[in-house]
Amino acid sequence: xxxxxxxxxxxxxxxxxxxxxxxxxxxxxxxxxxxxxxxxxxxxxxxxxxxxxxxxxxxxxxxxxxxxxxxxxxxxxxxxxxxxxxxxxxxxxxxxxxxxxxxxxxxxxxxxxxxxxxxxxxxxxxxxxxxxxxxxxxxxxxxxxxxxxxxxxxxxxxxxxxxxxxx
Length: 167
Fold this sequence. Notes:
There is one protein chain. With 167 residues, the chain is an alpha+beta fold. It has one domain: STM4215-like, CATH 3.30.2000. Helix content is 28%, strand content 31%. It has helices at 10-22, 25-32, 40-44, 55-62, 116-128; strands spanning 63-64, 78-89, 96-108, 136-147, 153-165. A five-stranded mixed beta sheet has the order 1-2-3-5-4. Helix 2 (25-32) packs antiparallel against helix 5 (116-128). It starts with 9 loop residues before the first helix and ends with a strand. The mean pLDDT is 89.
């Protein structure tokens, strides 16, 4: 029997978004390649990640389904943390809940010359906001906030809301 993740579970929602992000070539380039100049967009076009032999090592290093950022201060990288946020009852429905999905964008100072934090946040919104990815209906953009970050890092937190079953 294949070990499938049950549809509609929190694990399913997180995994669906994780899979969407790791399969996006452009986002992976933003997370991996350092700026060569303030006009990085041109150099991103010729480099590929998805067909790279080290693809899974890059994904494992750059996208995590956790809230922990231990040991990140010793590295210079861009990383995403995907994890569940608050879950609240939708008072208009006895069967639907609002589930937050949080994505923290951590960007080392060595990547910031081309506004990398903002660039990654924009790409995430393009991929996720108002799209039918998981849950009932479209994923809603809920909030974005600057948060405390490890030394030499910027941290920008994006919060999305999905409709999910209460049971």
